[in-house]
Design a protein that fits this description.
Elements: E1 5-11, H1 15-26, E2 30-36, H2 40-48, E3 54-56, H3 60-63, E4 71-74, H4 81-88, E5 97-100, H5 106-116, E6 123-124, E7 126-129, E8 149-152, H6 160-172, E9 176-179, H7 182-210, H8 222-228, H9 235-244, H10 246-268, H11 272-293, E10 306-310, E11 317-320, H12 326-338, E12 340-346, H13 352-363, E13 367-372, E14 375-381, E15 393-394, H14 399-410, E16 416-419, H15 430-438, E17 442-446, E18 450-456, E19 461-462, E20 465-467, H16 473-483, E21 486-487, E22 489-493, H17 501-508, E23 514-516, E24 519-523, E25 532-534, H18 539-551, E26 556-563, H19 570-577, E27 581-590, E28 593-601, H20 622-631, E29 635-638, H21 651-661, E30 665-669, E31 672-676, E32 683-686, H22 691-700, E33 708-711, H23 723-730, E34 734-738
Parallel strand pairs: 1-2, 1-4, 2-3, 4-5, 5-6, 8-9, 11-26, 12-25, 15-16, 19-21, 20-22, 32-33
Antiparallel strand pairs: 7-8, 10-33, 10-34, 12-14, 13-14, 16-18, 17-18, 22-24, 23-24, 26-28, 27-28, 29-31, 30-31
The structure holds shikimate-3-phosphate.
Shikimate-3-phosphate binds near residues 400 and 474.
Length: about 750
């Protein structure tokens, strides 16, 4: 690394100053490191331990010699900083860079302003967020700042060259630099560092007074030790910090005291909902912080890319229960959150998409327990009970979350921003923004109607009579959910039947929805009443195994407890038309949704012209149906399915490309595909990060002559957690490969 600093004078050789001096020396960050301390013993140790090149007993001995390229780092305790600044001010040339490491920045900046009659460009306030319970120069550790954060709080007057010099010093010592305004630094540190230290000291002090002797601590377990670890820190240092940052600290203490008082009241009133709310929210927030601290996103997107290598030519068999329905899982969280009372959901899909919806409602203040083995308990806040989230709501890969939430959130009193991953950020949102604007919503999108969506709160919505330009359950649901908040009767008319889970579930929550043919309508201003929801297995996930059994000789599987809502059974109709041996039994209804077991055995398939009225009823199942078509005798033709081009990927193109690589004759058309059945070879295909493309090609292996390598399969977790384990259990041979 190039030497950017000539001499570094470190005033105060405590842990922080000493460690930086040692790092600068060991890593060649400057030509000479000079240390100064009032304590002769410290100076001796600093020299003996190789912390500095030379020492001076007082700063006057060296300050006047310093000039361009030299840096003075003030490393003394916060309340001693003013004295050092005043001492240095008449001695230091204006070319010398001055920086400090005090934990509070406002008080230091004030002192500099007084001493200099303004902020000199040479002054760069800083604060390394690093430490240890050890103190003193003997604990100096040149690796102390590796991968730790240093906050610099430059002022408008701070000179660019001085700032750059300090940045390079810290970066050379291994630190990561953040910049923020002085006041923000002091507020953030008051909340995240100073308050916890005050609480730890106070707790230990309180308990140590509770009995004559300190016997009580004998019985303290790990929780006490963890919570109070920081009460072992340097008392003088913390005294100084509290005195210096009293304003910001008092403000967070007030806030905290209010919360403690509410907790006391809740305990007194045996208000278990309040208590559970605090604990659940806090636990979620803590998990969130833990991941942030480890630099992981909340939903932990995998850092590695997963590919599937699938061996050819197996058969599938057995009873299989696939995970819960994605559409119903999303809606259960949304309506459960807005209901009055507690909604218990079982069979909830613990996939990333529905978890993104769950997290969004937690971010808006809803207490949600679980999920645990598919059980979720939602403490509804009522139709007007959502709270403004602290930041944008991140919805990952989930179009359903974004489009349905857009409707719901258009009627709230607060502003909100909806964001998503790379794939979701490319998907069309104008289809929901346009009708919502007609209702009076104020929504801003990126160019081309793409996410993020910025929704302005506090609008009064009015009902509309909306004719959907495309068959889309998401658009229909979005308008109906906005209709809950609109004045008058909101009506949707769809060009073809699409999944009706929103309408069914609203009725289940006691909200009247009138339905006649293609029309659904509801009046705004009603209430939802909590209910129990049993989510059936997702027919879209079951599809992969239906196709598997249909194409692989010797197969026989029964998919249990599958949702067979008439608006979702296109895949069953189409497979039966192609000659599949598929039967339904054990029909029943759970929570307003029809459910059945589906048995499917191998039988030779033949190609068909897929009736266009089946397209919306099988919209998510086409990637798998294309694989069935590739294994069928003759030609299969799909038309009227241009919507497939705007799913998680362009599913027509993605499937055509992959099938062709595998040697199948597949011709994409603007609104569909023509597939000539034949033999499947092997090779490498790309799922383009689309879960359904990945799982469809896994099924193609059953009839392949060679292994298939499927790239980019991480997003299978959005809809089908544990797909690989279940598929392998059924007879497939899928190996996951991380790269
Ligand atoms: C869904 C509707 C469909 C479907 C999606 C889920 C829903 O989307 O493809 O996977 O839950 O409402 P469109 O409304 O865009 O057709």
């Amino acid at each position: 690394m190039a030497v950017v600093i000539n001499r570094l004078l470190v005033v105060g050789l405590g842990l922080i100053g000493g460690s930086l001096a040692k790092a600068a020396r060991e890593r060649g960050l400057c030509h000479e490191v000079i240390g100064s301390s009032r304590n002769p013993d410290t100076l001796k140790k600093a020299l003996a331990n190789g912390v500095v090149d030379r020492v001076v007993a007082c700063v006057e001995d060296v300050a006047a010699e310093l000039g361009e390229g030299d840096v003075v780092l003030i490393g003394v305790p916060t309340l001693t900083v003013p004295a050092i600044i005043r001492q240095l001010q008449p001695l230091l040339a204006e070319t010398v860079t001055i920086t400090d490491v005090a934990s509070v920045k406002g008080s230091v900046v004030d002192v500099v302003r007084q001493a200099y009659g303004g902020i000199p460009p040479q002054f760069v306030p800083g604060h390394p967020i690093a430490g240890s319970e050890k103190s003193g120069v003997e604990a100096a550790n040149s690796a102390l700042f590796d991968d730790h954060r240093v906050i610099l709080t430059p002022l408008p007057e701070t000179g660019a060259a001085h700032l750059q010099r300090v940045r390079e010093l810290w970066q050379g010592a291994g630190a990561v630099i953040s910049e923020m305004p002085v006041a923000e630094h002091d507020e953030v540190l008051a909340a995240t560092s100073h308050l916890p230290h005050m609480l730890a000291y106070t707790l230990v002090d309180t308990l140590s007074h509770m009995r004559e002797n300190r016997e009580i601590f004998r019985y303290a377990a790990g929780g006490f030790r963890d919570f109070t670890r920081i009460a072992a820190s340097d008392p003088v240092m913390w005294h100084d910090i509290v005195m210096a940052n009293s304003t910001a600290l008092l403000s967070v203490l007030d806030n905290f005291t209010d919360h403690v008082n509410s907790l006391k009241e809740a305990i007194n009133n045996k208000d278990s909902e309040y208590l559970l709310g605090v604990f659940t929210r806090a636990r979620e927030a803590r998990n969130h912080f833990a991941k942030m601290l480890e630099n992981k996103a909340y939903l932990e997107p995998m850092t590695q890319t997963i590919d599937y290598r699938v061996l050819p030519g197996q058969a599938v068999s057995g009873d299989i229960r696939v995970p819960g329905d994605k559409s119903i899982s999303h809606r259960s969280i949304m309506l459960g959150s807005l209901a009055n009372g507690v909604t218990e959901v079982t069979g909830f899909l613990e996939g990333e998409d529905s978890l993104a919806t769950l997290q969004a409602f937690r971010d808006m203040g809803v207490v949600i327990e679980g999920p645990l083995n598919g059980r979720v308990v939602i403490h509804g806040v009522g139709i007007h009970g959502l709270k403004a989230p602290v930041g944008p709501l991140y919805l990952g890969n989930s179009g359903t979350s974004m489009r349905l939430l857009a409707g719901l959130l258009s009627g709230q009193s607060f502003d909100v921003e909806l964001t998503g991953d790379e794939s979701l950020s490319k998907r069309p949102m104008e289809r929901v923004a346009a009708p919502l604007r007609q209702m009076g919503a104020v929504i801003d999108t990126n160019d081309g109607g793409r996410p993020p969506l910025r929704i302005k709160g506090g609008q009064s919505l009015k009902a509309i009579d909306y004719r959907l330009p495309m068959a889309s359950a998401q658009v229909k649901s979005c308008v109906l959910l906005a209709g809950l908040y609109a004045e008058g009767v909101t009506r949707t008319t769809e060009p073809a039947p699409t999944r009706d889970h929103t309408e069914r579930m609203l009725s289940g929550f006691g909200y009247p929805v009138a339905r006649h043919g293609a029309v659904a309508e509801l009046s705004g201003g009603g209430e939802l009443t909590a209910t129990a929801i049993d989510v059936p297995a997702d027919i879209s996930s079951a599809t992969f195994f239906m196709v598997a059994a249909a194409i692989a000789p010797g197969s026989d599987v029964t998919l249990t407890h599958v949702g067979v809502n008439p608006t979702r059974v296109g895949v069953i109709n189409i497979l039966q038309m192609m000659g599949a041996d598929l039967t339904l039994g054990n029909y029943r209804e759970v929570g307003g949704e029809p459910v059945a077991d589906i048995r499917i055995r191998y039988a030779p398939l033949h190609g068909i012209d897929i009736p266009e009225d089946q397209v919306p009823l099988a919209i998510d199942e086409f990637p798998a149906l294309f694989v069935a078509a590739a294994c069928a005798e003759g030609k299969t033709v799909l038309t009227g399915a241009e919507e497939l081009r705007v799913k998680e990927s362009d599913r027509i193109q993605a499937m055509a490309d992959g099938l062709r690589i595998l040697g199948v004759d597949a011709e994409p058309t603007p609104d569909g595909i023509v597939i000539q059945g034949g033999s499947i070879g092997g090779g490498e295909v790309d799922s383009l990060g689309d879960h359904r493309i990945a799982m469809s090609f896994a099924m193609a292996s059953l009839r392949a002559s060679q292994p298939i390598l499927i790239r980019n399969c991480n997003n299978v977790a959005t809809s089908f957690p544990d797909f690989v384990a279940l598929a392998n259990c059924a007879g497939l041979k899928i190996a996951e490969e991380a790269r």
